[in-house]
């Protein structure tokens, strides 16, 4: 197993190198002079000269690339032009929102999509099946940003003054402040990387409020995330339901399922214990593949629901030509994406021993 | 991915019983798929709308109606049949923030969206076919490995992220957004072509062609590539829907079509802050996007079942 993981890691190295090159080239090709972008339009020739020397921009492009990779390896993504703060710090503040949004979206997609797929497969060609598949077809065709706005209209305006009202924007209500878990438990994390890590986990408001037993923040944070997560979950939910259905239908036609039935097992046991377990592999694959869709959706949902996450920050950074943020965030997201795909690949071995890894 | 999963779906069409032209057989199968027929009807109506937009739309899509009609900014829909007073001008989808007829804009938007879908996917298919066939047919380190790793790198980015980054370099605008979406979609087609080329090039008829001295480019274009057409048609039909959705998303973020172009994503973007006060301005363009994408998805699913039952999801 270790051998396989190492081999897969090595195999993703060329892709990783490619991602670094692409990000570097794209960031260098964004129109505009970095000197005037950072020092302002009125920067003198000398000031620009000094700036280029300091940032290593006067060096050959290959040397610049090596310096860039070296900085990345140290976790140094440079400083944001707009906020005059380290990109790493901004990432620590914004990433938790996107991660919580994505995970909640994935959770909704799975807990609704998988059962719907199972029911469709069991009641194949019934009204439920046809309804689910029509719904799934509509679901994959729906623009995330439109659905988000429509949900906002229904839940924040039409259902106002009902118990179903949900907040249309933001991460927490005014006046609700979560206490970071390290302060709650009186932990001293110092100033360095450990503190940043602590800040990152404390930024996962739902997680932080659970471990600090702050139910008010938990309720508020969850209510704020439901609408964006629902908008985000629609396409993955539809795809998951379709995949579960077709994967289960395929398995239900196999001999061992007939054997299980003929030896008198209850239908429930046959479906869940025998068929579903073997149908799980393609479902896991498709859930893993949803991550790209989830992230692309996060850029849109964060924008609509005014959530300060990675997606919306990236969009703002592009509008403001904030190169260090564009570069840093893109690399982190792409590397994270590669890692998750690797994790999905490795998880096959646990789910299906038939897959010979070596 | 999911493309090689065999399924035993109940609505499986029996394999061709009639001999004859395989395309005729596939078409016959296609017309037996209910979803494909619905998809074709939807797309047929959209193409009709796009062609006859000037006849269907009551107004010019960028015509500002101030001073021409007694209408106000962001007025809700007025339909005479549904009780709107006859003395008021009829605007079945209402008036937008710049006092323009929303229905006319949505109708003209059909032209833009279909154009976007066909051009971006056309471009992606051409480049993807070229790269995929070189990678699959020539093989070896230099072409296969390098091309497919580059494709892997493109796929390593979430599509919208890479598309946004490309538009950031090229500058916002509809043409650049379409180019970005085309680039992001190339790997899909390169992979489809490569995999069929890899399997077909080992067939005996290809060896036979080679043994009688047929050149590489002729083998590729006459014997290998025609076999890649069915999966390519399926992928492209489904891809057009996705491309329309992706380009609309870029326009929604302000990176695609710029005002006053009646592009659905851009129309949504310009009125999204009015969702509470004038929901019709957000509802109709979004609905138009959904119907168009749904049409392509239904037809794509039907084509998949008709052309290659092995590919069914």
- Average pLDDT metric of chain B: 87
Strand content of chain B: under 5%
Order of helices and strands of chain A: HHHHHHHHHHHHHHH
What Rg of chain B is obtained from the alpha carbons, in whole angstroms? 23 Å
Number of helices of chain B: 12
Describe the largest sheet of chain A.
Answer: none
- End-to-end Cα distance of chain A, whole Å, is 8 Å
Instruction: Count all strands of chain A and give the number.
Output: 0
Query: Topology as H/E string of chain B?
Result: HHHHHHHHHHHH
Report helical residue fraction of chain A: over 70%
Mean pLDDT of chain A: 87
Count of DSSP strands of chain B: 0
The residue ranges of chain A in which pLDDT falls below 50 over 5 or more consecutive positions are none
Output the radius of gyration of chain A: 24 Å
**Poorly predicted ranges of chain B:** 1-16
Dominant shape of chain A: globular
Oligomeric form: heterodimer
State the secondary-structure class of chain A.
mainly alpha
- Categorize the overall geometry of chain B: elongated
Largest interface: A-B, 59 and 56 residues
- DSSP summary: helix tally of chain A: 15
Q: Would you give an account of this structure?
A:
The complex is a heterodimer of chains A (358) and B (313). Chain A has 15 helices and no strands. Chain A is mostly helical and 358 residues long. Chain B is 64% helix and 0% strand. Chain B is elongated, with a radius of gyration of 23 Å. Chain B starts with 21 loop residues before the first helix and ends in a 6-residue tail after the last helix.
């Amino acid at each position: 197993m270790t051998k396989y993981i190492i081999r897969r890691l090595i195999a993703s190295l060329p892709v990783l190198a490619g991602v670094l090159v692409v990000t570097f080239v794209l960031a260098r090709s964004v129109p505009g002079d970095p000197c005037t972008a950072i020092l302002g339009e009125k920067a003198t020739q000398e000031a620009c000269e000094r700036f280029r020397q300091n940032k290593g921009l006067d060096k050959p492009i290959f040397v610049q690339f090596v310096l860039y990779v070296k900085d990345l390896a140290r976790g140094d993504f440079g400083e944001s032009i707009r906020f005059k703060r380290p990109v790493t710090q901004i990432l620590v503040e914004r990433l938790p929102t996107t991660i919580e949004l994505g995970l909640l979206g994935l959770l909704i997609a799975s807990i609704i999509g998988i059962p719907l797929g199972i029911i469709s497969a069991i009641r194949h060609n019934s009204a439920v099946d046809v309804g689910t598949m029509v719904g799934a077809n509509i679901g994959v065709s729906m623009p995330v940003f439109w659905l988000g706005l429509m949900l906002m209209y229904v839940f924040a305006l039409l259902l106002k003054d009902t118990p179903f009202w949900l907040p249309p924007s933001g991460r927490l209500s005014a006046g609700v402040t979560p206490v970071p878990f390290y302060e709650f438990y009186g932990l001293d994390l110092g100033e360095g990387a450990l503190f940043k890590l602590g800040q990152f986990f404390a930024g996962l408001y739902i997680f932080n409020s659970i471990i600090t037993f702050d139910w008010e923040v938990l309720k508020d944070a969850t209510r704020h995330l439901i609408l964006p997560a629902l908008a985000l979950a629609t396409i993955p939910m539809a795809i998951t339901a379709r995949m579960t259905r077709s994967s289960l239908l395929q398995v239900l036609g196999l001999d061992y399922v007939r054997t299980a039935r003929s030896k008198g097992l209850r239908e429930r046991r046959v479906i869940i214990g025998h068929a579903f377990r073997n149908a799980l592999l393609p479902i896991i694959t498709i859930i893993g593949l949803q991550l790209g869709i989830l992230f692309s959706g996060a850029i849109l949902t964060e924008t609509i629901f005014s959530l300060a996450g990675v997606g919306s920050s990236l969009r703002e950074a592009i509008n403001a030509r904030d190169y260090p943020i564009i570069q840093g965030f893109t690399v982190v997201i792409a590397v994270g994406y590669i890692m998750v795909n690797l994790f999905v690949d490795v998880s096959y071995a646990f789910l299906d021993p038939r897959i010979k890894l070596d | 991915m999911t493309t090689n999963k065999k399924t035993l779906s109940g609505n499986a069409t029996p394999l061709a019983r009639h001999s004859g032209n395989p395309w005729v057989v596939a078409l016959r199968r296609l017309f037996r798929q209910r979803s494909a027929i619905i998809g074709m009807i939807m797309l047929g109506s959209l193409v009709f709308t796009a062609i006859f937009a000037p006849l269907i739309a009551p107004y010019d899509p960028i015509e500002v109606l101030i001073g021409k009609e007694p209408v106000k900014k962001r007025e809700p829909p007025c339909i005479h049949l549904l009780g709107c007073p006859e003395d008021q001008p009829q605007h079945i989808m209402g008036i937008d923030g710049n006092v323009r007829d929303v229905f006319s804009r949505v109708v003209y938007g059909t032209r833009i969206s279909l154009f976007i879908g066909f051009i971006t996917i056309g471009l992606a298919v051409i480049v993807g076919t070229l790269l995929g066939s070189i990678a699959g047919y020539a093989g070896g380190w230099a072409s296969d490995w390098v091309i497919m790793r580059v494709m892997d790198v493109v796929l390593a980015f979430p599509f919208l992220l890479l598309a946004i980054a490309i538009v950031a370099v090229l500058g916002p605008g509809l043409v650049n957004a379409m180019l970005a979406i085309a680039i992001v979609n190339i790997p899909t087609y390169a992979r489809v072509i490569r995999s069929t080329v890899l399997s077909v090039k080992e067939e005996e008829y290809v060896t036979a062609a080679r043994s009688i001295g047929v050149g590489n480019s002729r083998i590729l274009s006459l014997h290998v590539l025609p076999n890649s057409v069915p999966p390519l048609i399926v992928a492209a039909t489904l891809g057009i829907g996705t491309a329309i959705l992706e380009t609309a998303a870029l326009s929604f973020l302000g990176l695609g079509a710029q005002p006053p172009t009646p592009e659905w994503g851009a129309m949504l973007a310009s009125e999204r802050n009015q969702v509470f006060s004038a929901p019709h301005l957000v509802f109709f363009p979004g609905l138009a996007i959904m119907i168009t994408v749904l049409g392509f998805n239904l037809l794509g699913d039907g084509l998949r079942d008709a052309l290659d039952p092995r590919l069914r999801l």
